[in-house]
Specification:
Length: 172
C-alpha cells in the first residue's frame, strides 16, 4: 500500500505537506474500482496513527491491502493490534471484504507480531527496494474471515452505510 514519504526520506519541513498531498490525492480519486480508505487513529483527541485499506476492482475481487502507521511513543501498548482489529471488523462485517492482504518488512518484528495476533497468515517473501540502493525483504500476509482473531474488545462501527452505498454494495 503506497504511503507518503517517511521522515527519513522527506527533506526537512516537507513531511506534513507530502502527507496532506497524498491524502488529498487519494480522496479526489476514490471510486469503487480504485480506492484508498485511510482512517485516523485518535487517543484523547490527538491523532496518533492511521489505519487504511487500498483496493482495486473491489466489486469483483472483494479484497484489499491494509496498511498502518502508529507513532513510536504509542507502540507496545496494544493500540496497533486494536486498530488493526477494528479495521478488519469494518472490512469483513460491514464492507463485504472476503480477503485482506498486508505486508511487513522482516526487520519490523513488531508489525509482524500484530499481524499474527490478528490472524494474518504468511504468503511469501518479496525482495524489494525500500530506499535508494537498499534491499528489503517484505513478508506478504493474508487474512480471511475464518482466520480473523477478533480479541475480547467489542468493535462499534458507525458511518459504514454511506461507504457501502458509494461502493455499490447495497444496489439491488
Amino acid at each position: 500500500m503506497a504511503r507518503p514519504r517517511s521522515d527519513e526520506d522527506a527533506p526537512a519541513g516537507q513531511l506534513s505537506r507530502n502527507t496532506a498531498a497524498y491524502h488529498w490525492g487519494k480522496r479526489s480519486t476514490f471510486s469503487p474500482e480504485d480506492f484508498c480508505l485511510d482512517l485516523a487513529v485518535l487517543l484523547d483527541g490527538r491523532v496518533i496513527g492511521c489505519q487504511g485499506v487500498a483496493a482495486k476492482h473491489f466489486p469483483v475481487t472483494r479484497t484489499g491491502e491494509t496498511g498502518s502507521w502508529l507513532g513510536r511513543e504509542f507502540q507496545g501498548r496494544g493500540i496497533g493490534t486494536a486498530m488493526r482489529r477494528a479495521m478488519c471488523a469494518l472490512l469483513f462485517d460491514h464492507l463485504g471484504f472476503e480477503e485482506i492482504t498486508s505486508a511487513a518488512f522482516l526487520d519490523n518484528p513488531a508489525s509482524l507480531a500484530v499481524s499474527r495476533k490478528v490472524g494474518y497468515q504468511p504468503t511469501g517473501i518479496s525482495r524489494i527496494k525500500r530506499r535508494e540502493g537498499e534491499l528489503a525483504l517484505n513478508q506478504g500476509l493474508v487474512l480471511t474471515p475464518d482466520d480473523f482473531v477478533r480479541g475480547d474488545v467489542a468493535v462499534e462501527v458507525t458511518g459504514a452505510a454511506p461507504v457501502r452505498s458509494f461502493l455499490g454494495l447495497d444496489a439491488a
